[in-house]
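=== Discrete structure encoding ===
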Amino acid sequence: MEGLKIPFLFSSLFSILIISNAVDTITKTQSLTGNNTIVSSGGSFEMGFFRPGNSRNQYLGIWYKKISVKTVVWVANREIPLINSSGVLTIIDPGILVLVNGTGTVIWSVNVTGSTQNPIAHLMDSGNLVVKDANDTSEKFLWQSFDYPCDTQLPGMKLGKNLETGLERHLSSWKSSDDPARGEFKFQCDPQGYPQKILSNGSVDVFRTGPWNDTGFGGTPNVFYTYGLVYTMEEVYYHYELQSDVISRVDVSYDGHVRRWIWVDLTQKWDIYLTAPTDNCDNYKLCGPNGSCNIGSSPACGCLSKFVPQNQAEWGNGDYSNGCVRRTPLDCHKGDGFLKYSRYKMPDTRNSWFDRNMALRECEMECLKNCSCTAYTNLNIGGHGSGCLLWFNELIDMRKLSEDGPDIYIRMASSDLGQAGHNWKPGKWIVVISVILTGTLILALGISLYIWKKKWQPKREGRIRHHLGETYYKEAKNEDIELPLFHFSTITKATENFAINNKLGEGGFGPVYKGRLEGGQVIAVKLLSKNSKQGVDEFKNEVICIAKLQHRNLVKLLGYCIQGEERLLIYEYMPNKNLDSFIFDQSQKMLLDWPTRFHIINGISRGLLYLHQDSRVRIIHRDLKGSNILLDDEMNPKISDFGLARIFGGNETVANTKRVVGTYGYMSPEYAIEGLFSVKSDIFSFGVLILEVVSGQRNRGFCHPSHDLNLLGHAWRLYKEGKATEFIDVQLRNSCNLTEVLRSIHVGLLCVQQRPEDRPSMESVVWMFGREGALTHQPKHPGFFTERNLLETERREIEQCSANMVTITQLEAR
């Protein structure tokens, strides 16, 4: 956290004590200074200040205690070094572990979750630095260094992602042997599809291990350590444990190699046990889609059997990037089969599907049912094999292996199966006959069902056509909306005929009512009245968008209802209404302490990350604001109102519209003025939200006696003057976590910068909220920060086109 200073008269806040090598704990009265160190309770690790290589800079780090070669495994202030030996590591109120330089400035601190009256920092014998309550003997930590690895993975450390909190643990290289700052290379356990470990250089993938197969990531077990993959609804991570007294670690080097080291007592040095990449065939995607690399061949790249180069001329010139295609194209409707390929590294699994319990025969049938499925294999190869892993589209990054490995079955046109295929062995006829008999039975049942429904289906479809219109009815069927269609009488009864005392609020779209279904479930009914600017297209858009999305920070749509010109959406009920009702209400905002506000900010960021990157389709919300952030009974934020959202295609990054929609005060400059929108438009809106949550004031209509700036301009001015603490809501100033608040202001200003390319991605935002230390990127001036002077004319134009002086629905771009 840059810029926060503590009076250098430390004796008035805490005492600086000389720490002996027998001490493994830091308290409010014991600090780490100068050339002193602390040692873990078992004596395996030591923490103190060091200078790497030939550098004159000083860092706080952890290294092995019992080996002769000083090997640093973790660095606290890797981005901001100490330029002299006057650093102090201590704990300040309310339990924050901080590193302070000689001028009293905090250059590194931890984001502690929770609070305690008696905090201590303890170096464990695993090499894990933890902050905890001194009286708590459990493994519940307020913070731990194992959650924020540097370039080294130690035994017991997780590499992976917590799917609930968004915390990602990965290794990142040093910049050089003399500089521990974050380098270009990153090594992670990627949870997308089925987990695998990936080494990347910036945005370019360099090496991939292959998927976990219950014995390893495409490798074989060994006698030194055991390792495994944990995959649950809450988290996905890889870990390893040592089996004997051997000392072993994994690191990623500044020149781009992942290495496993073993300490050899006899020679008193580290030996490399494994390294990757090891040869050209380890280079990611070297031979292109459906290609295979064989290090024993010349050239190394070739096509899989029954495949040919996509471009023969390029292939002959040594350009393998376009890979291979099947010799005979697939024809799903005429029938395909599978060829068995043995001793291959499994393809990239980021576009895959898996089932842990499915047998291999069931796996084959599952793949046959989906024309996009291109290959399948056993998920686990131990014992008799179990589980199912399916690939879709191209097969990427395969290589021929010398040792045994799992078999992969690749989809082929029936004409290419021949004698090599495994699809028509005698035992297969049993499967074929079973499929035919099953199909016949299903067909008979289908005909019976058709005859039974024929009497009432036309009437039902006629009613829906009448309500929706013929065109929309057909489109809705094509979109395959898997949501219940509620009867209007059901909703009328649930809301007591839309009684006024059940009304929760109203926006430009129409009113929202509370209701209770016959089963007792409480619902919120959003009624899009016939006078609403949100028409059939927006209604359809919201139904389709939300039906495809599932995330803990997105509101859940339970169904929809059509009645004449009225269109209704039925949501899960949020008892705490929306964010605006708390932060802008003088009596309610007192209920929002800083931990709750920070929890809400983080929840919104994870919801947006899901929309922009992790969902099945990329969604731009286009109307992110406090009134569209609903709060459940535990104050968990839920992004709502997708009527103006836009689905982006796989390669689409920016779109243009002549019909600007959204809410003034939250819209980005390029969108409000030019009609250009992208994920960076949502990020601008999110930045406004952050600053509103921190300050407790609206951006729109903000007034300050000393200047004409809006809230963004006010925040920017205070930040530049080093007075960011004056921006904090007065309700929070005596109880907030100053580290988190100042980081939030910094991130908010990064998000509202004028130019879209200067704003961070949501992945970067989530990372910045979860990391430790100061943020190195400084914000530039925000967009729309002189609202009352320069934008007065534009404001009047916008208000003339607004449905209710809040939501813009018709503004033409200029």
